Target: Transcriptional regulator, GntR family
Amino acid sequence: MNVKFSNRMEKLKTSEIREILKVTQNPEVISFAGGLPAPELFPVHEIKKISSLVLDEMGPESLQYDLTEGYVPLRKQISERMNRVYKTELSEKNILIVCGSQQGLDFSGKVFIDKGDVILCESPTYLGAINAFKAYEPEFIEVPTDDFGMIPEELEKILNQRHDVKMIYVIPDFQNPTGKTWSFERRKKFMEVIEKYKIPVIEDNPYGELRFSGEILPSLKSLDNLGLVVHLGTFSKTFCPGLRVGWICASEHILEKYILIKQGADLHTSSFSQRIISKMLENYDFEERLSKLKELYKKRRDLMIFEMKKKFPKNLKYTNPDGGLFTWVELPEGFDGRKFLEECLKNNVAIVPGGSFFPNGGHENTFRLNYSNMSEEKIIEGINRLSKVLNEFEY
Ligand code: PMP
Model:
């Protein structure tokens, strides 16, 4: 049928990861492709009990329409926790509850981007953000990024040349896809540049609390003197993604715009999910839960890195992250990550080719591995299979 779609639909294509995830539904496939948390640590029994409690204590309210901004006690709990963990100075008035931080990304595009505006991002950056922003038809400029984060001198060079930059998108903690974390020095320098040019920053932070070693670093939001930083948080990786509860924190004059967009998009985030999370935070030991997650993910990271060191060819590099869910592999020029994936799938193991994480293409000699979702046995067997493919693959 010949229907006419909007121009923006021409720019959108399905996420490569979603397509790979379909193939990995096959139980024979060992998948290091998705970014899925370990399901064995989902708080199923706790949520069962808490759901009854929520229905007993506030049944009709938890099933009714809610405030667009979100459930006030949960917004208070989040702002207090952010202040403690990330050294911010926020109140519930700075928090809007959204359906996962992915919704925060989409809304950021709606709030800041007109067709043709420039978005600056790390190189590489999160594929889901590239796809969310693409709907608003921006131009992406990738800012050179090294092991310590976005390079402030390079950022400043671009900001000097381009006066149509509307927003900067960054993931300073255990980045998706590289697993890298910005140093404190870099955070400070970055904020100095931002305050000079006064560009809004989207600080996306789904993994910050999953730190295996060292101290949690102050967030960009805590270094934000002018109210330019919009910080995105989520319970997807610390509780479970299925409840779809995340948050946006920003200065009130920016948050107002997001609230308007939220009203038009879906009125509010699930009343029931928000109350379940709020009661979980109230009645259960969140720190203990985080410790269990970090212990398991550290074990899996250690094992994956150990196996890679033992079995992978010596001409490649990979990151050894201090937290989060991913390691990033770089091969010599000429390696084709997409063809490599085809070979991997023939051997029942999956990765994500790194090229998809660069909005302007290139860098096909890279791939991303996830270590949170597979058991220890599968990590060993999966790295065996990958090593076999790598050793036979021509590049
Ligand atoms: N940002 C980043 C960097 C992510 O890795 C993810 C999840 N993979 C999200 C945002 C979206 O997470 P959610 O919507 O579940 O909060």
Notes: The chain has twelve helices and 15 strands. Residues 200 and 228 are 5 Å apart (CA to CA). The chain has a mean pLDDT of 95. The pocket of 4'-deoxy-4'-aminopyridoxal-5'-phosphate is lined by residues 35, 100-102, 126, 128, 171, 176, 204, 206, 234, 236, 241, 246 (CB under 6 Å).
